[in-house]
Amino acid sequence: MQTPLLQQKILTAVLPVFILVTGCNNRQANTLSIPKKNMLLVQEATLMLEDAMLVTRSDDDFESLALMNMQQQERLYSHAGIVFKEEDSFYVYHIMTGNENPSGKCRKDPFDSFVNPLQKTGFGLHRYNFTPAEKKQLHQWYKNTYTHSPPFDIYFNLAGSDSLYCTEIIYKGIAAATNNRVQLPVSVIENFKPKMMGYDFSKVFFKRFEYVGIDNLYLNPFCTTIKTVKYQ
Prior knowledge:
- By secondary structure, this protein is an alpha+beta fold.
- The protein is 30% helix and 23% strand.
- The chain has 7 helices and 8 strands; from the N terminus they run ααβαβββαβααββαβ.
- The strands form 2 sheets. It has a 6-stranded antiparallel sheet with strand order 4-3-2-1-5-8, sandwiched between helices. The protein has a two-stranded antiparallel sheet with strand order 6-7.
- A hairpin with a 2-residue loop joins strand 2 and strand 3 (89-95).
- Helix 5 (132-148) crosses helix 6.
- It is globular and about 50 Å long.
């Protein structure tokens, strides 16, 4: 049996390939202008935004495609956040790592930046069945988390909250804000034996590995998809 410390060391080596630490990424733009029809799609979606909506987004780079492949039900998106209106604009709270966010801390970006057609291939809007009080609770939870700035969870470990990965922050925020009324599902890999070229993991074996997939966030009884956009 592996000790928790040994498991963390193994996951640190394996997960960059297995889930990819940089999978929740934000690729740099490689074009100079946004097609008008894509700008209109973003503007239309902005009019549909409500507090505490889930915003998912997709990309076609290698890391994003690898992350999509970890989803067991639907492989559409590679990152997600929760949106709230502050003053006169909507902001998406999310956590990521990689070149665009080396600190790995929680951040909030304007909605149109989060789904920028120059960088992304599409996005989705999803509504949870929160009460007004639960929305306020979730907003305050995100404000506190943003202030506290926990680091990105490179171990993808659901057991602790000192660090959080991109779907974990949503999973735990919703559970806290709803007093566990809304408990999102998790994905499970049974009998996981990691493989990585150049490393001998012949004696490493995980009976059960649990993680939150992006599809777990919206394919559940508590959530309804409102809009799905594929940029053209």
